[in-house]
Amino acid sequence: MRIAIVGATGEVGRMMISCLAELNLELDLLDLFASAKSEGTMLYYLDHPIKVRELTQESLLTKYDYVFFSAGGGIARAFAPIAADVSELVIDNSSAFRREDTIPLVVPQINGDLLLSYTGIVANPNCSTIQMVLPLAALDNEYGLKKVVVSTYQAVSGSGHSGVDTLKKQRRGSTLKGIYPEVIDLNVIPQIGVFLDSGYSTEEEKMDHETRKIMRRDEIVVCATTVRVPVLYGHSATVYAEFEREIELTRAVALLKSAEAVRVHENSYLTPLAIGNSNEAHVSRLRYGTDKRSLTFWNVGHNVRIGAAANAVNIMHLHAKQSGKL
C-alpha cells in the first residue's frame, strides 16, 4: 500500500506512524509531510528512516491508497480535496469535515459499514466523542439510548504539543498562561474551544453533534461539559446515560465486555496515568443512575491513540480489508 501522512511531526502524526507500525504493515511507500520548519526531520517506520518533506499542493498529486491529515482544519480544507481527487481515501483528524452530510464520520467498530466501496474524504471524530460512543453503542443496541450527560476531564495533549509544553513550563514555575485562558497547572479550566451563543463551547457542541451522527440517532439528547485538566495524556469522563428499556446490570457488563475496543474494569478503575499504550475505551465504576433505565460510569481513553491516531488507522485498516488490499 501507498500511504502519506500530512502533519507527520505533530503529536497525532507521530502516533499515526506508531499505530501503523504496530500493525506491522509492509508498505510500498510512506511519505511524510509537514510545514517548512519541519522539513528534513527524520522519522522512523519499522526502523526505516524517512525524511519529512514540506507540504505543497504538488505533494498530493501523487496517487496514494490512503492519505492521513493531522495538521488542523485550515490545512485540511485547503489540501484534503486535492488529495481526494487523486488518492483513494483521505482520513482527516480535524473538525473541518465532520459536519458535512456527505462525508462519513467514522468509528469503525460502530459505523464501519459506511466505508464499504467508499472513496473520498472520511472524518475522524473528536477524541472525547470516540472513547464515549464505543461503550454507549454497545449498550444502545440492546437498550435504546435516549439521553447522555457527560463531563470530561481532558489532558493538555488534546491541544497538541503546545498544550504539553505549556503545562511543563508552568510546572517549572512559569506564570504565563500559554495557549489557555487560565493557568492550567494545579488548576482545571471549564472551557475547551470558544463559547457559543448557546453558552456551550465548541468542544461541547462537537460531542453533541458527533455522538448523534456516529450512532445515526438524531433523537439522542446530549449535554456535555468539557474541562481541561493538568494531565499530559489520557482523557477521562463521567458519563450518565438514559435508555428506553430497563437494564439488567450483569447483562450490561457482558455487552460491554464483548464490545470491540472496550475494556471493562469491574472491581477497580483506571486513571490516565495507568493507561499506557492502550487503544481501547476503558469503562469502570459502572452502576445504575437514577433508576434501572439509566447507567453511569467512568470512561478513560488515550486521547492521542483511541481518540485520534488509532481510530484513523483503524479506519484505514477496515477499508483496506473491505477493498481487498489486506
Q: Major sheet, described briefly?
A: 6 strands, parallel
Low confidence ranges: none
The Cα radius of gyration reads 20 Å
CATH level-3 fold name of the largest domain: Dihydrodipicolinate Reductase, domain 2
In DSSP terms, counting alpha (H) and pi (I) runs of 4 or more, how many helices? 8
**CATH level 1 name of the largest domain:** Alpha Beta
SSE succession: EHEEEEEHEHEHEHHEEHEEEH
CATH architecture term of the largest domain: 2-Layer Sandwich
Assembly context of the chains: single chain
Assign an overall shape.
globular
What is the percentage of strand-forming residues?
A: 15-25%
Give the helix proportion (percent range). 25-40%
| Overall pLDDT score | 97
Question: Short summary of the structure?
Answer:
By secondary structure, the chain is of the alpha/beta class.
